[in-house]
Amino acid sequence: TGAGITTPLTATATVSVETEPVLTISKGINPTTVTENSSVTYTFTIQNLGNTDAVATDNIVITDTFNPILENITVTVNGDTLSEGEYTYNEETGLFTIPAGLITVPAASFVQNPQTGEWTVTPGTTVITVSGTI
Fold first, then answer.
1. How crowded is residue 99: how many other Cβ atoms within 10 Å of its Cβ?
2. How far is residue 61's CA from residue 42's CA, in Å, rounded to a whole number?
3. Which residues lie across from 131 on neighbouring strands?
4. Quick one: 63 exposed, middle or buried, by C-beta within 10 A (0-12, 13-18, 19+)?
5. Fewest CB atoms within 10 A around its CB: which of 29, 73, 87, 121?
6. CB of 73 within 8 A of CB of 131?
């Protein structure tokens, strides 16, 4: 090569794709400082980084023991209120469960920047809230 002449570098890669949900869950409480007879909300955020929806037949189960224990709870999934019987809750122990077959989580979306080739992943998300008084 001569002075001032550059040769472009090109690389390729093969990526194996798995077709399945990839789930994570996080839990928060609001407010973080609680007093007796106040309202409290537990929020569960389930994220799917996979390229496939998590569907009812994937049998996702949510189980937690609330501390502090709540009374007179209201449960929502993505803003839709669940009725008693769609979940179980023991006000004596704080044990809360949403049984298999009720929770779904959409697949993540993947977008590639045409200039840089960089991929951006936006997880699919389902949010469950449980509100009540202590």
1. 15
2. 16
3. 41, 74
4. exposed
5. 121
6. yes
Q: What is the pLDDT along the chain (134 residues), one digit of tens a residue?
A: 556 677 777 777 776 666 899 999 999 999 988 888 899 999 999 999 999 999 999 999 999 999 889 999 999 999 999 998 999 999 999 999 999 999 999 999 999 999 998 989 999 999 999 999 98
Q: Which region, left, alpha or beta, applies to residue 94 given φ > 0 means left and ψ of -120 to 50 means alpha?
A: left
Stretch (H or E) spanning 122 = strand 119-122
Question: What's 43-107 look like in SS3?
Answer: EEEEEECCCCCECHHHCCCEEEECCCCCEEEEEEECCEECCCCCCEECCCCCEEEECCCCCCECC
Helix, strand, or coil (residue 18): coil
Q: What is the pTM of this model?
A: 0.82
Tell me if 55 sits within 8 A of 35, measured CB to CB. Answer: no
CB of 27 within 8 A of CB of 42? yes
